[in-house]
Amino acid sequence: MFEAAELGRKIPREEYEREVPRLRTALLQAQERLKSAPFPVLILVNGADGAGKGEIVNLLHEWMDPRFLLTYAFDRPSPEEAERPEFWRFWRALPPKGRIGIFFGSWYTRPILQRAYGEIKRRRLEEDLERIRSFEKTLVDDGALLLKFWFHLRRKDQKRRLEELESDPATRWRVTKLDWKHFRMYDRFRTICEDVLRRTSTGEAPWHVVEARDRRWQALTVGRTILDLLERRLAAPPPPPAGPRRDPPRPPARPGERVVSILDRLDLSRKVPPAKYEEELPRLQGRLNRLVRRAKEHGRSAVLVFEGWDAAGKGGAIRRIAAALDARDYRVVSVAAPTEEERAQHYLWRFWRHLPGAGRVLVFDRSWYGRVLVERVEGFARPEEWRRAYAEINDFEDQLVRHGYVFLKFFLHLSPREQLRRFRERESVPWKRFKITPEDWRNRARWDDYEEAVNEMIERTSTPGAPWTLVESEDKRHARLKILRTFCEKLEEEL
């Protein structure tokens, strides 16, 4: 794969000086047009030691408006980053729509280095590359323009470049013992990098291998490639925007027509007498407190997801969990409609950035499942968007579980009749009235549509590592105890 980047191509100084002003002007104009475009641009800068990666990053800041470039250099994970899944730091750094992000180093660095040093087997490398392909597809499917550059040097050119840098007192600091160690491993790195690039150069995210022997050739090639692909993308018609569904609710099904769903298997008659509840609640809360403190000592975090029908009791269940914990050890994130900042990112971005450090409990009151529930039913996501979300969600949750989070998902179910009773109660009680909104009534009118969406959601996202716990919530006391008991049992199993 690297042979095409070993041809010794050069650009004369006169041609370079003649081309750069035109290229800079065109890049600035394209960058200005990008500001109002509905997609971000992400540029990955990777390659051999001494191949001029830093110089290219600096040059892009010189050629374009640096105020609208978001540049991140990724080295070894910091302690904060190491406490979270590997891709957390990359998700947090993603550029919003209309902006360009430059990643100096990326999600490729760790797998390549570990494979070169023999720290991981071939099978683990293949798993890492599959994760990378999935991540990049997620970004591209959402509209991102992903440009991946690999700067290549032949062995003798790399040696010459390192010697030149080392011989100049002004640049000597840039060459380290590690650079020379990697040079001695040149053949091994070349074999691994060629394999990695070949396996991850896909139709939606191809690699651009650039010969780095001549700096002028390298700079113009990178600038021209960015300009060409950005202008092509700006000229392409945008996808039709999603919007609220205008069709009326489906008419009630006639007897015998209703499709049986997974939720129909739940026994909504389950109840807990008040006396038993008052006895069991403090016992389970005490058990949970002790387990969470043990988990904190071991650096284990927990992430809980609560979904369910309006008025099913999510808030009450969350409050019973919170009452058992030290306020310093947990956080509740209530998910509403995305903000303007969040709409400029992939829908998973706002959830990735909340992931907790070691020894913490994070509770999502509604979650990323909004993509396949309310956004699906109300038409805020196009069919192709919510349909691919199942795989994206499963991949996201797999990363949480593999990282070591104690991960639970609860769906609280109740009957339409009980929901109606609770809605009316909320309207009649002054201190509960704030809980009921016109949106709740509108959602209720689409009960069958939502039930269909919930059924498919559970079928397609209840995985061995992240199964759904379906909670019978016709009786709130039963629901709260079941949730507390399930959380305790999961912590005990993990610890």
Describe the structure in your own words.
The protein has 495 residues and is an alpha/beta fold. It is built from 20 helices and ten strands. A five-stranded parallel sheet has the order 2-3-1-4-5, with helices on both faces. It has a five-stranded parallel sheet with strand order 7-8-6-9-10, sandwiched between helices. Helix content is 50%, strand content 12%. It is elongated and about 85 Å long. The chain has two domains: 3-235, Rossmann fold; 262-494, Rossmann fold. It has helices spanning 13-34, 53-63, 79-82, 88-92, 109-116, 122-141, 155-167, 177-184, 186-200, 215-235, 274-297, 314-322, 340-343, 349-352, 374-378, 383-403, 416-428, 438-445, 447-461, 476-494; strands at residues 41-47, 69-73, 100-104, 145-152, 207-211, 302-308, 330-334, 361-365, 406-413, 468-472. Helix 11 (274-297) runs parallel beside helix 20 (476-494).
Largest sheet: 5 strands, parallel
Distance between the termini: 47 Å
> Strand tally, please?
10
Mean pLDDT: 93
What's the multimeric state?
A: single chain
Please work out how many helical segments DSSP would assign. Answer: 20
At the fourth level of CATH, the homologous superfamily of the largest domain is P-loop containing nucleotide triphosphate hydrolases
Poorly predicted runs of 5 or more residues: 252-256
Tell me the count of domains. 2
Strand arrangement, major sheet: 2-3-1-4-5
- CATH class of the largest domain reads Alpha Beta
CA-based shape: elongated
- Residue fraction in strands: 5-15%
**CATH architecture group name of the largest domain:** 3-Layer(aba) Sandwich
* SSE topology string: HEHEHHEHHEHHHEHHEHEHHEHHEHHHEH
Radius of gyration: 27 Å
CATH topology of the largest domain: Rossmann fold
Give the helix level as a range of percent.
40-55%
Structural class assignment: alpha/beta
